[in-house]
Amino acid sequence: MLQVDKVSKRYDHQWLARDLSLTVGAGEIMALLGPSGCGKSTLLKLIAGLEPVEAGTIRFAGQDLARVPPEARHFALMFQDFALFPHLNVLDNVCFGLVERRTPKATARGQARAVLATVGLAGYDDRAVGALSGGEAQRVALARALVTAPRLLLLDEPFSSLDAHLRLSLQTEFRQRIRALGISALLVTHDRQEAFTMADRVALLYQGGIQQCDTPSALLAAPADPWVASFIGFDNVCDDWALPETALWLDAAGRSAHIETLTPLAEGIRLRLSQDGQCYTLHLSAREAAAWRTQLAPGADVGLVIDEAARIRFA
Amino acid sequence: MKFRHLCLAVSLAAAALGAQAEGLRVMTHNAFELSKPLLADFEKQTGVKVELIKAGDAGEMLNKLILTRANPIADVVFGLDNSLAGKAEAAGILEPFAPKSDGRKARYALPGGLISIDYGYVTLVYDKAWFAQHKLALPKSLNDLTLPAYRDLLVVENPATSSPGQGFLFATIRAMGEERAFSFWGKLRGNGVKVVKDWGIAYNTDFSHNGGSRPIVLSYATDPAAEVAYSKVKVNESPVATLPLSGAVYQQVEGAALIKGGHERAAAEKFIAFLRSEPVQKDLQTTMWMYPVMQGTPLAPVFAYAKEPAAHQTPGAAEIRAKGQGWIKRWTQVVLK
Amino acid sequence: MRSTRWLALLPLALLTALVAVPLSRLSTDGASALSLAFLSDPYYRWRLAWSLAQALATCGLALLFGLPIAWTLARFDFPGRRWLLRLLMLPFVMPTLVAAMGVLALFGPQGLTGIHGQDTPWLLLYGNLFYNLPLLVRSAQEGFARIPANRLMAARSLGATPWRVFWRVELPGAMPWICSALCLIFLYCFSAFGLALILGGQRYATVEVEIYTLVAYELNLSDASALALSVLAVASLVAFGYAWLERGLARPMRGQVAQRCVPSGWRQCALLALAVGLLVLLALAPLAAIAWRALWAGPAWRALADPEVWAALANTARFTALALGGACLFGLAHAFAARRSVLLGTLAFLPYAVSPVCVAFGLLLVYPRLSASLTLLIGAYTLLAYPFVARGMSATLDAVPAHLPQAARTLGASTWRVVWRVLLPIAAPALRRGMAFAAATALGEFAVTLFLSRPEWMTLTTLIYQRLGRPGALNQDSALVLSCLLMLLAMVAFVLIEWQREGDDDVAGR
Hints:
Radius of gyration of chain B: 22 Å
Oligomer: heterotrimer
CATH architecture of the largest domain in chain B: 3-Layer(aba) Sandwich
Main location (chain C): membrane
GO biological process, one term (chain C): transmembrane transport
Number of strands of chain A: 17
Shape of chain B: globular
Transmembrane segments (chain C): 49-71, 83-108, 120-137, 174-199, 224-245, 269-292, 312-335, 342-364, 370-389, 434-453, 478-497
Helix content of chain A: 25-40%
Number of domains of chain A: 2
Number of helices of chain B: 12
Strand content of chain A: 25-35%
Largest sheet of chain A: 6 strands, mixed
Largest interface: B-C, 70 and 78 residues
Order of helices and strands of chain B: HEHEHEHEEHEHHEHEHEEHHEH
Radius of gyration of chain A: 23 Å
Shape of chain A: globular
Keywords (chain C): Cell inner membrane, Cell membrane, Membrane, Transmembrane, Transmembrane helix, Transport
Order of helices and strands of chain A: EEEHEEEHHHEHEHEEHHEEEEEHEE
CATH topology of the largest domain in chain B: D-Maltodextrin-Binding Protein, domain 2
Subcellular location (chain C): Cell inner membrane; Cell membrane
Structural class of chain A: alpha+beta
Strand content of chain B: 15-25%
Helix content of chain B: 40-55%
Distance between the termini of chain B: 59 Å
Strand order of the largest sheet of chain A: 6-7-8-3-9-10
């Protein structure tokens, strides 16, 4: 559906996108994962038509979008700060796009109320948007984006301003809702958890280019390079290899390793070990930690097994 | 929502501005005023539509005419006086013509193609109540005004920005001679004369009769009559009176003229004749507070309070044209700088 | 919204036609060669220096008195607050001569207060404050009102006393608004005839009076143009400085604005009473004196039966409406085009920076056929009124987060629909305020009488001046009665323009 082909964009002499190519299939949810400030939001704005591309083409369903203004693209963009219109109440915010698409007022209101009800905000019609909580504002923004039945949903860090608990429950809800509507979506985030929970495929953006793009499981199974491996959560990454979490464990029979540091975490502990001059990071669950408790202390030695077969070598 | 519709409507209204018809374009100073029925009668009788255009004070009006002489903005002008006649003549903006005589004679004539219409006097006016209250004798001559007893009592208009101010300066020069006149002005400055921009400021804010602090103001000889006519209650005596000291009376003869390059020549001539007709000559007395220039015009009863000064000290138009500008420059030097 | 820059063509055309062309025509027509020789004349040097000094002094005084008043009005709620803010714009409407009479009715030799201040420097400064303090108060109170509450709370929690919060958070936050008002006050005082001149006599004439004398009485166009251009240079420098500062200062405001509170405790009540009292004394007392004198004018009220008065009232209303329409059109175009452009920001001040006399005479030269036409008259009114809309709007538009128009675009709104449905409603309070000031300018504008006028265009202001152009108590009284009528009309206009529900203020700040 969406084809981004060799798109380039500079900002103050810094490349935000350089010959960047990307495709999002019909009904697919794609996550664009990258560190803060790498130009993810700009890429969304390029796709939405809010900023001009310097080179390359963006197509949707085969149509070149170069001369199509944002309002004619039928994409909906949901901003990080939700960008609710302060002068309109909840219902009028949701109706906004319908009115622009020439829907008769009564119909528009009916549709808006229906969508508000599905996001759990029935009866919020006349509320001022300034008086909404973060979660409510986000649902209004989603309702506003979904009610126009966009061809593509663009989401710019939609969960970043919410607290961790709310974020998790909303992510699942979001995914189900978008899935149910069969809309293609492109989600921008710096949070790998969010990307892996929400998306069918995840594209890793770094220094203006896509480093790797694949399903979450494929990414975890075979990260393409050290940067990708560490960004998607591998603890033990070197220049030419990476070790999945499952590839190393403590075992009295293993070769001896020296405990450098020991950090208690909410759900267990983190160990930094050294073996043969190589450092490893190892997470122990609370249960494992309890089993090993007597032997774990900074400066002590424990046995460490590394599954060489599971070691991933970069090409 | 409604507010935005209002904005749109107002913007559209602004875009649609009306056009206007052309008639006889009469330029006047701001003080020009005639009773409305008179003008309406003139229009009906002659079939000419009169467009009055006000161009500020008489001096300003003349300069506007000079500036636009290549492409005149009016056909006939009213309100140029003897102090401006020379300048107007030199600039060659007026078209001389001889009005048809109907047997009546004008008391005064003007040079340079101007047809005299009315006349008046610039002079000092004092607040009777103030002098009575302060038990101060009236000054007997202009020089008295430079004495300590009359310190801070006089307000005059700047000759550079006001016609009465200019007239007073010219009269002092006429009466005393240039050197003595400027030495008088120097002493007046030392004695706290206040100079303001125009008549409106002097009369309305500085004259003690109107809440100011100066009981003597440079104004017009018809003021006592006007004060009676515009009094809040019926009075038999005017609260102000003139102080026609020698060197403080300047005669102003106002006239009308055709403008060179103007249109509607015939209508313009009719308009000037209209200004000299008896109804207008009667009317202008109590609308513009001037004396009618045509002999035999009956005076309005209220003019009993405005006796014409016995003498005046007015330089000739030629002298004013030759030296007027220089005098004003020198006055600015002596009194303001 | 870079694509809206072309909209600048509209106001630029107006400025070119009504300011630049006449001014350059006048200076080329009159002057063989522009020379700065007049600068060697100590008299002109003194005039320039005095104009500059009194303008700066007025700015300083307005700051001194205006800031505490504005802060109090922004932080405290009390009955009649909105009416006070509206009343504050009345000085704008008053013809200077009437204002002078009002001031003298209080502090003149026969004044009600018994204080005789005429011809003292104090009364001059009072006169300047009367006209200019309201500008600063209205503008600064808006600035203070827009500072997000959490910024104030953050400062307090970081250990700042309320006084330090004012200095380190509130004052810098309101700076764009304060600077804007100061810039305008400076321009008004620097290039205006001013109340000081009336109250103090020719000794206190500004350089504009010299220009007026040179043009209108001496037809000395070369010196006048040179003088006018030097005034323009100084004024443009100030305007440019302001526009440059504003660009650096304006940034989107986020977060809930601080709520006004009802004053509690004797300190707050006293502060509020002091501020309101000061404001009434400085800006409203002369108006009250005018109204008081008019009230006792008895027979002069009969003047209201004169059809001339009603015609003048109708004209005033008509011209104000037309000027408002023009001001909206050009002001909005300028505001949408000017976004963060220093040059266009500076140009919005041009109408206040040029000498009205020079422009009036230049227009006669350039458009002799149009010189007594309604088009030119309305054009002149619009010229003087539109910068208020332009400045207020562009400041607000700069404060609208970029995400809002972008979100509207992706929801299907074209550029124009975004303006109509998002930007205009968000900026509506600013637009209303700008329009109120524009209306005040048009209602009270006397400078346009420098242009040729027709009796059938008699407005209330010109009628007042006509009455004051004749001797006699009845004429003075009817001028005062007409001034009251003008104030009444102005209040009606302000209420109509600023009509909105309570709490509709400052939507953009949230």
